[in-house]
Amino acid sequence: MSLDRAVLAFAGVMVLVSVLLTQFVSPYFLWFTVFIGVNLIQSSVTGFCPAASVMKKLGLRPGCAF
Fold first, then answer.
1. pLDDT for the residue 55
2. Burial class, 48, CB count within 10 angstroms (exposed 0-12 / middle 13-18 / buried 19+)
3. Does residue 61 contact residue 2 with C-beta atoms inside 8 Å?
4. DSSP letters along 11-40, please?
5. Are 10 and 51 a contacting pair, CB within 8 Å?
6. Do residues 8 and 57 make contact, with C-beta atoms less than 8 angstroms apart?
């Protein structure tokens, strides 16, 4: 799996987890979903993604975006 696909999969899983936490634990977990969205927008503008940096150090092969 390339780094690009891993970052997209990780973001998707985090969004789904935050929606489930919002539904079953507390509505305040909606802020976690907002944080994920803001981080996605920030990484699309700046090209810096903290998750991609960690995954790159773990040895995932680079893709086109990261």
1. 95
2. exposed
3. yes
4. HHHHHHHHHHHHHHT-GGGHHHHHHHHHHH
5. yes
6. no
Reply yes or no on whether the pLDDT at 66 is more than 80: no
Kindly state the tokens that stand for 57. Answer: 């150090």
Q: Please check whether residue 11 is in contact with residue 40, taking contact to mean a CB–CB distance below 8 angstroms.
A: yes
Long-range contacts of 20-26 (CB under 8 A, 24+ apart): none
pLDDT given at position 65: 81
Read off the pLDDT of residues 11-40 as tens digits, 9 standing for 90 and up: 999 999 999 999 999 999 999 999 999 999
Is-contact 11 51, C-beta < 8 A? yes
Report helix, strand or coil for 41.
helix
Q: What is the mean pLDDT of residues 47-54?
A: 93
